[in-house]
Amino acid sequence: MKGFVSYTPSNLGIPFMKRRVIGFVLSALLIVFGIGDLFVQGLNFGIDFRGGILLEVQTEGPADIGTMRQDLNALNLGEVTLQEFGADDVALIRVQRQEGDETAQAAAIESIKEVLGSEFELRRQEFVGPQVGEELIQAGILAIVFSLLGILVYVWFRFEWQFAVGAVAALLHDTIATIALFSLTQMEFNLSTVAAVLTIAGYSINDTVVVFDRMRENLRKYKRESLITIIDRSLNETLTRTLLTSGTTLLALIALWFFGGEVIRGFTVALIWGIVIGTYSSIFIAAPLLIFLNLRPEQLDRVSGEDKSDQAAVRS
Questions:
Q1: Does the structure show a pLDDT above 70 at 298?
Q2: Are 64 and 105 in contact (CB under 8 A)?
């Protein structure tokens, strides 16, 4: 019995490269608007980065957020934010870091507990200092930069430099677009979001390398065809695989978004957006950049050592 993929067309004949300028314009608008909003609004950093106190409490009935906010503001602890957290009887309380050492933070937590009373069940209690937050920001930026550099070196080593530049440009596009999403929506940007951005980079480069691999094969096989024709052929030949992989991954992530709860909601939103934008960038950013970077088929005539040994074995 044949599988589902065997019934799907191997080449849909979609002229992607005819629309490459539209793709560049859309991406440029997305990046410019996203970076502009990043400068205007900035990111809504979580306590992981800003430092402060985080409490998760549960009530016997629906939480009265208005009364709770009024009671907590009377403590004069500075910035206090409250929100329902996944259910109407669960509330998340964020309080800015208090002046002083850990004793001052512990005193603030005790004051909050005293005001809330015994009818509130404390489910989570976290405190992060400002130094830890600064170190996490630096570590997060370094993790993203080094991962992109590592990918650049890997793709350059395996393909030509034009492929490496195209892959990293697509990854930068995906990374900036994901961070811009968090700036536009003001969703909390925390350590889980950094992990999601790194996951997106890994997923996106995997998809891009599969497409590049097919392009390299076709460039060697169809030397008389134009680069645009070969890129379109390669994208169409890998389109079914791309859509099936992205689609099944999205199904799992959507289930996590619905049933995973508030703790991982930001993480799943970032991954859902990243898979969509990563699939788009493989087709409309990484592939057409090869045309602008003047990739020539004769560059691929340099047969690798492995291929040479294979050919020699066939001749013997």
A1: no
A2: no
